[in-house]
Design goal:
The chain is α+β, with helices and mostly antiparallel strands. It has four helices and eight strands, in the order αββββαββααββ. Strands 1, 2, 3, 4, 5, 6, 7 and 8 form an eight-stranded antiparallel sheet that branches. A hairpin with a 6-residue loop joins strand 7 and strand 8. The radius of gyration is 15 Å and the shape is globular. It starts with a helix and ends in a 17-residue tail after the last strand.
Length: 152
């Protein structure tokens, strides 16, 4: 699967499950609105005081599953960050293109934007007799710097 196909797939699905690691390294998952930027980053919003945000500030590693209802899925892993300045403007604009109904939450400062740079992704199609699994060619997706768990 090419990166453009991943982008189109995530944009069409409009939601997914994001899994983060709690303070005790226990998995924590949430179903939420998600889209893909034109660069292939995954974008979602969350309340600043949510478990997701606390977890990601402590450990940026994340797993995501998009789809499922139609017999197809995208499984992905990557690192999350909180873009700033021009990158925040770009990512927020792309997120609000997908979800204009959330503009008020951004304007009120009720949510923060999270960007996920993917390290790995695989699309699965389970609709036929034999499942078809395709790795996604991520190419030169911009990635935030790696952080060791427990560092800011």
């Amino acid at each position: 699967m090419e990166l453009a196909e991943l982008i189109a797939y995530v944009r069409a699905q409009r939601a997914g499950v994001v899994s983060t690691l709690g303070a005790d390294a226990s998995p924590q998952a949430a179903y939420l609105a998600i889209t893909a930027s034109g660069r292939g980053e995954l974008l979602f919003d969350a309340k600043p005081d949510s478990r997701k945000i606390a977890n990601l500030r402590r450990d940026a590693r994340v797993a995501v599953v998009v789809g499922g209802a139609d017999g197809t899925t995208l499984q992905a892993e990557g690192r999350a960050d909180f873009p700033a300045d021009e990158e925040l403007e770009r990512c927020t604009a792309e997120y609000l293109d997908a979800f204009p109904e959330f503009a008020g939450s951004f304007e009120a400062g009720a949510v923060v934007l999270v960007r996920i740079a993917l390290d790995w992704a695989r699309h699965g199609d389970f609709r036929g007799e034999t499942p078809v699994m395709r790795e996604v060619a991520l190419g030169a997706t911009p990635r935030p710097p790696r952080r060791a768990p427990g560092t800011a």
